[in-house]
Amino acid sequence: MARIGIIIGSTRPGRRGPAVGRWVHQVAVTDRPAVTFEILDLADFGLPLLDEPCPAAMGQYRYPHTHAWANAVARCDGFVFVTPEYNHSTSAAMKNAIDYLFAEWHDKAAGFVSYGVTGGWRATEALRLILAEVRVAGVRTAVGLSLFTDFSASGLTPAPHQRATLQTMLDELLTWSSALSRVRQS
């Protein structure tokens, strides 16, 4: 059974990431009961600015917060990155969390759900570049939620087409996660 981590990439107060992550999780578990989906909220891991004395590629982690994060990432076959767009990129917390690890990311797949004034597309594109370096394959289809049309005063209210796009992205993610599991086993 595949395990997919839904990584919520904002840690600031008043963030919208948890609502987006819950929506992704709800759609995912409803339509794909044979897959385990787990929310990995960066705020729960308390990762300070990268404080490991050795480069992540060495895999010599010193601190408990790094071990907890490494274990969470290692047990996943793929990921949905839920990212805000901050200043034309992903959040500093997301970049920091990726930089903490190396081998735990290798040969896994990623889907993207971004949000921002213009749908967060630049955050998704920035993540694609960062993740390529740690050998994570990004799927083509992505969801971009607009702060103007997919959120309301009551919270997240995605337009109907967003669910269909999310389902397509999840299908691609599961296909690539399955294919890459064979790469990890060889």
UniProtKB/TrEMBL annotation:
Superkingdom to which the source organism belongs: Bacteria
Xref: InterPro entries: Flavoprotein-like_sf, FMN_Rdtase-like_dom, NAD(P)H-dep_reductase
NADPH-dependent FMN reductase-like domain location: 3-146
Family matches, as PANTHER family: CHROMATE REDUCTASE (PTHR30543), NAD(P)H-DEPENDENT FMN REDUCTASE LOT6 (PTHR30543:SF21)
Annotated protein name in UniProt: NAD(P)H-dependent oxidoreductase
Gene source species: Dactylosporangium fulvum
